[in-house]
Amino acid sequence: MIILLISVNLMAQQTGVNYDEKEVPNYKLPELLVSKNGRKIKNAKRWEKIRRPELLKLFEQEVYGKIPVDIEIDDVIIHEAAGEAFNGTAIRRQVELVFRKDDLALSANLLIYLPKDSDNVPVFVGLNFNGNHTVSDDPDIRLADSWVRDNPSLGIVHNQVTEQSRGVASDRWPIEEILEAGYGIATIYCGDIDPDRDNFQDGIHPFSYQLGQFRPGYDEWGTISAWAWGLTKAMDYLSTDADVDSSRVIVFGHSRLGKAALWAAALDQRFAMCISNNSGCMGAALSRRQFGETVGSITKAFPHWFCENLNKYASREENLPVDQHMLLALVAPRPLYVTSATEDLWADPKGEFLSAIEAGAVYQLYGTEGLPVNEMPAPDSPVAGSVGYHIRTGKHDITSYDWKQFIDFANQQFTPEQ
C-alpha cells in the first residue's frame, strides 16, 4: 500500500492530476430535488413530470448530446437462431441489426447466449470493446468486420481483427457462470455502432446529418450517446425475442462503456436495471470533486465522446448545471449498481460512492432505500438497497468477483414471481 501511494503521488506530481483528498475543492452540488424555477420536488409524481425531464434535457444539451433523428431497425438478419454452445448447456444466437437511410447502411451484430431449455430468461446486455468474438473462445462466433483500434498483441492489425483476437477478453465475460445462474447475456461490439475515434464520418452519426453537415451539432450526440442509442436498439430486438424476459433486461458496462450504459438507462426506461463498473468521470463519479480524471482531461483526450457543449466546462466544473449524481438518479426507481476499484484512482472511487449516496434521495421518493450506508465500505464488502455498491481490491477492470456481485444483486431485486 505504501508503494502504491508513493507511486500515485509521483504520478500526480508529474501529470498535474489530483489524487489527494486534501486538494479536492470545496464544492456545492446542484440541487437534485429543486426544479429550475425553484419548485421543491416532494414526491415521485413531481419527479417524473417536472424534474426528471429537466435533467434529461440538460444532460442532452450540455454533456452527451441529443439524438437528433429517430433511426429504426430496417432489417433483422438471423445468422444463427439456436446454435449449440458450452457443451450443449446453452444456445447461441447471432443477429445482425441493419439500419439504412438513403445510400447509407450500417450493421450492428448482436451475440446472445441463453441457458438451454429455458424461456422467459432475464438478460444482461452490454457493449464490448473489440468485437463479439473476443468475449469467448467459442470458434463459432462471427469475427467483427468493423474498424477496430490496432493492437498487434491481440491480433488486431490494420484496424481489422484476426483469429488471434478470439477470446482475448473472455476473462471479463464469465459467460458460463452467468448462464448457470439462470441469466442470458447479449453483446454488441461498440465499433459496429460508432468506431471509437474522432471521425464522425463512419458509424451511425451520418444518418442524422443534414445536407452539407459533416459532424454533429454543438448539442448533438457524441460517441457515448451513439453507443447508448445502440443499446436501446439491442433492447428493441430483445423485446421481440420470445426466449427473453424483456421486463428483466439489465444494461451494464465497464469504463467508457459504463458511461454509455448509464446514459442508455436514463434514456430508455425499459431497462430493468443498470450496472456501472468503473465508469469514472462523466459516468458515476462527481465532476465537481476534480479528483483523478476531470472534465478538462476527458474532453481533451476524447473530444468525440461528448457533445461540443461540454468543452465549456473544462476546468470550470462548478459551472455545470448538472453533476453525475443526477445521472444516477435518472435510473430510479429501477435498481442501480455502481462499482469501483482500489487502484483505479483515475476513476475517483470515492466520487462514485458519493454520487450513488446522493442519488438515493430520488429512490426515497418511491419509498425504497438507495444505499443503506453513509460511509464508504471496506474493499470487497458489497452493500445494497435499491442502489448497490462495492469497491473491489485491484485495478481498473471487470472481473469474476464483480460479476458475482452483479448476479447476487439481480437475484435480490428480481422476485421469484417475475
From TrEMBL:
GO molecular function annotations of the record:
carboxylic ester hydrolase activity
Annotated keywords: Hydrolase, Serine esterase, Signal
Q: Which residues are in the 4-O-methyl-glucuronoyl methylesterase-like domain?
A: 220-367
- Pfam hit, one: GCE_fung
Q: What is the superkingdom listed in this entry's lineage?
A: Bacteria
Gene3D superfamilies the record matches:
alpha/beta hydrolase
Coiled-coil residues are none
Supply the InterPro entries for this chain.
AB_hydrolase_fold (IPR029058), GCE-like_dom (IPR054579)
Q: What is this protein called?
A: Acetyl xylan esterase
| Organism of origin | Sunxiuqinia dokdonensis
